[in-house]
Amino acid sequence: AQAIAARAFGTARIPRVDKITGPGNAYVTAAKKLVMGEVGIDMLAGPSEVLVLADATAEPAFIAIDLMAQAEHDPRAATYLVTTDPTLPDEVEQALGVLLEEAPRAEIIRRSLTDNGRIVVVADVMSALDVVDLIAPEHLEVMMEEPFELLGSIRNAGAIFLGPWTPESAGDYVAGPNHILPTGGTARFSSPLSVDDFVKRSSVLSYSREALEADGPAIMTIAAA
Q1: In 3D, which of 66, 82, 69, 76 has the Cα closest to residue 119?
Q2: Are 150 and 129 in contact (CB under 8 A)?
Q3: Residues acting as catalytic residues
Q4: pTM passes above 0.85
């Protein structure tokens, strides 16, 4: 938090900056919120979250592993399983029971899953996609029979992981796309951090005399109103 303040306002040795980006804990996020307007920021990041969209072809153990990998971040991390298969939740919960016995952060995972874990069973794929867009998750894992066919129907998600062999941890560390992502439903109107966040634009206007004479009456009408 102190570094955020130093960058936003400057110190005797640290020049002030125009924009601050990057992840942090609750204190860093609070500091970024306080200086927003003095400088630009990328986003206000909350606790991490994952939503696994799965059908009957999904491997329950894979789902359990990826839910655990997210839940171990923080007791406030959010985990969702949205599925069209009514038998899958029980299979995933059984796999969780086995895997938690050997998890070094089992206590945090259990608290997270208990307090912020949700399983949603829906009748069809379209209903499942409606749930995804409503939650607008930071991380969306698509463990469906034809994940690429669904890609164009997903509107709100920070990062989308397609297929059973694309775990979120690949995106966390080595896959390539930036992993500073919108959380807390802000994927409805925000995008992952990218080069676009470091590009600033200006509007450029230039009228000829004839063009200004043509638009002048409309300009004066609007100004008078």
Answers
A1: 82
A2: yes
A3: 138-139
A4: yes
